[in-house]
Specification:
Layout lengths: L2 H8 L5 E2 L5 H11 L3 E6 L2 E7 H10 L26 H11 L3 E6 L2 E7 H24 L16
Parallel strand pairs: 1-2
Antiparallel strand pairs: 2-3, 4-5
Helix pairs in contact: 4-5
């Protein structure tokens, strides 16, 4: 399974923010949209990720307030990225290695979407459920045949 399979199911809704936007505006967007991340874009290019992890750390550093901080001062400016053709197992390893919950998907320089660790876990579980159903159907339809242990045995 590849990232493109997740994007196909998830859809293409993207939420972005500029680096010079006030953090308070970004946090409001995240809360109103019930999303855990925003892609930081400038001139059509991805330059960072803003997640609740960075927001919470910034608020703690700022004495419990968002204050006048800008997205640029808080964002992860080296986010993990993947392509639509990246295998899900590789994405899972990458996300686990960096404790990343969100990953932008780029096709060249074009932002195709963002996948979350939840999206990856759901895709894996759904794939395993499908495989289990197919195996159970196969076993249920197993052809009956003579038991090879009893065929040809003599009864003394």
């Amino acid at each position: 399974m590849k990232v493109v399979d997740i994007l196909r199911v998830k859809g293409g809704t993207l939420f972005t923010v500029t680096p010079d936007e006030p953090l308070s505006v970004a946090v409001t967007t995240m809360a109103e949209r019930d999303i855990g991340s925003l892609v930081v874009m400038t001139h059509g290019d991805l330059i960072g990720m803003l997640t609740f992890r960075e927001v919470i750390a910034a608020i703690v550093r700022n004495g419990g307030s968002v204050g006048n901080m800008l997205v640029r001062t808080v964002m992860d400016d080296h986010p993990l990225t993947c392509t639509p053709e990246t295998e899900i197992d590789e994405v899972r390893r990458m996300m686990l290695g960096r404790h990343a919950r969100y990953m932008p998907v780029l096709d060249g320089r074009t932002l195709m979407g963002v996948i979350s660790f939840y999206d990856v876990a759901k895709a894996v579980v759904d794939g395993q459920d499908f495989e289990n159903r197919m195996l159970k159907a196969y076993i249920r339809d197993w052809p009956l045949e003579d038991n090879p242990q009893t065929a040809g045995e003599s009864k003394f």
